[in-house]
Design a protein that fits this description.
Elements (H helix, E strand, L loop, with lengths): L1 H26 L5 E5 L15 E3 L2 E3 L7 H15 L4 E5 L7 H13 L5 E5 L7 H13 L5 E5 L5 H12 L5 E5 L5 H7 L7 E7 L2 E5 L4 H16 L1
Parallel strand pairs: 1-4, 4-5, 5-6, 6-7, 7-8
Antiparallel strand pairs: 2-3, 8-9
Helix pairs in contact: 1-2, 3-4, 4-5, 5-6
Length: 232
């Protein structure tokens, strides 16, 4: 009975938070920074986009699927308020990945193109193909990324790096990698970001350091650490 009451209370909180968030986005015509830091394990992300059709990670609205005019207008308001964002950060480490969180990433990828600062924090097993493609889609949608941070990714990090290199090589000046597994391929890609001024490594291949432009030697040490671990 208590679990049922707690679940009902969580649903009520989510409904209120969603309504407040939609109202906030509707009225925030000059919103520049959006940070989602989910500290409560059981509380979901607000459902900012109730219905979204997806196909091969190309997203489009389908008005026939929307739940009435209010839902459509609130989604439109959310979209217009997001197009001025310059900083987006999401921390899902202490929470569970849900469809609402995925919808938020889709919404960002569709409506934002001026983000300069991106920061993603998910648990390592949440970086599945869907999340990877959404992160890459967000990267591709931006005109100018100057800082990119990511945490806890263990595989396929080179796919993200490659898209950053192809699209934002000239603008990216700062990167922070936290508990990221850096493969030999990732190392080679990192060496090609000639305009980077700072790279911060936190527990990457058991190495923590903050380095300035000439970081090739440090990257080589990451590979050395990896090779030594294989020999054990």
């Amino acid at each position: 009975m208590r679990k049922f009451k707690d679940k009902f209370k969580e649903q009520q909180i989510l409904v209120m938070v969603t309504s407040l968030m939609r109202l906030f986005l509707k009225e925030s015509t000059n919103l520049r920074i959006l940070i989602f830091n989910k500290k409560f394990h059981n509380l979901d992300t607000p459902n900012l986009l109730p219905k979204l059709m997806t196909k091969n990670f190309i997203f489009s609205y389908n008005n026939n699927m929307m739940m009435g005019k209010d839902s459509s207008s609130s989604s439109s308001s959310s979209s217009s308020s997001l197009n001025r964002l310059v900083k987006f950060q999401i921390n899902n480490i202490n929470s569970t990945l849900t469809q609402n969180t995925i919808n938020l990433l889709k919404l960002i990828s569709i409506n934002c193109k001026n983000i300069h600062y991106l920061d993603f924090k998910f648990k390592h097993y949440e970086y599945n193909d869907n999340i990877l493609q959404l992160i890459i889609s967000i990267i591709k949608s931006q005109d100018h990324i100057s800082e990119f941070n990511i945490s806890q990714i263990k595989i396929n990090f080179e796919l993200i790096l490659l898209n950053l290199l192809l699209l934002h090589k000239n603008t990216l000046i700062s990167m922070k990698l936290d508990h990221v597994h850096i493969s030999e391929n990732s190392t080679e890609i990192l060496k090609q970001f000639y305009n980077i001024r700072k790279v911060k490594l936190l527990h990457c291949n058991k190495l923590t350091s903050e380095v300035l432009p000439d970081y090739s030697e440090l990257l080589e040490s990451l590979i050395d650490i990896k090779h030594r671990e294989k020999k054990r």
